[in-house]
From TrEMBL:
Membrane-traversing stretches: 12-30, 95-120, 132-159, 171-190, 230-250, 270-297
Bilayer topology annotation: Multi-pass membrane protein
Residue ranges occupied by any ABC transmembrane type-1 domain in the UniProt entry: 93-294
Family annotation (InterPro entries): BPD_transp_1_N (IPR045621), MetI-like (IPR000515), MetI-like_sf (IPR035906)
Taxonomic source organism: Mesorhizobium retamae
Sequence similarity: Belongs to the binding-protein-dependent transport system permease family.
Official protein name in the record: ABC transporter permease
Major place of residence: membrane
Subcellular location: Cell membrane
UniProt superkingdom: Bacteria
Keyword terms of this UniProt record: Cell membrane, Membrane, Transmembrane, Transmembrane helix, Transport
Amino acid sequence: MTFLVVRLARALLTILIVVSFAFVVLRLSGDPALAILTNEAPPEALLAFRQSWGLDEPILVQYFNYLRTIFSGDLGMSMRDGRDAFTVVAERIPITLAITVPALMLSIMIGVTAGICAAFNPNSRLDRSIMLGAVAGFTVPSFVLGLLLVLVFSVWFGVLPSGGAQRWTNAILPIVTLGVGSAATLARYTRAALLEVLDRPYVRTASAKGVPWWQTILCHALPNAAIPMVTILGFLVGQLIAGAVVVENVFSWPGVGRLLVASVASRDLAVVQCLLFFVAATMIAANIATDILYSLFDPRLRASANRGGA
């Protein structure tokens, strides 16, 4: 129980820091009235806009008003269309999940499989080839990979659309672009974790007894290599969220990432703050889920948590 309370307290503190930082940076980076109404608007219109949104008040007063609305469950209104900021963001979340969730599944399938193959063939040509591909997939920026995929599959071969979200085929290139970098990272960590486990006596004993290799992997190697692999999975969630901002703009995918860029450009303060709140909450949820998986894979951590809550 103590463990859960501490985690929740840290989560609330993290969210408070994120929204506070976003609040200050957004208000120091430009005037929303000029961004939305443009420089050609008359001074009276600009003044009325600032007064209607409370932008004419001191920044400290704006900050405490903002905290009060957040703690009351109100994330503000969009300055561009006057709708609730949470509604604006919520409309885009399923669209982003449509590419990030399949990308995560793709990265797990490719990354874990490639890491297993490399670990069971150390220093071989297969191992070197997989690690070379992993380094390339990890280092190539997502926007470069996305443009390369568009060039090959949309321009040269014409088999896949280059952007938009009209059909399910529009999601293929964004999913692959997001999944490749994550798969490369996961392959490297899977290989390193398995190489450490495969050298343990209980794995060598299982192999000496004639246990099939697939059973050795599933029953002996993977469960004991799970903790470092779970750690990187929590990191991959953040990597996918950050990558979605770039990939959605490359492929004109109308999700949360594209909304973030458009809202920052137009200084739509409430929407940007709501988006950052969503991102922070997602990262915190991923970290808590990682801690829960730790306790499932390692009984010692579960017993330690129970002693702490006793």
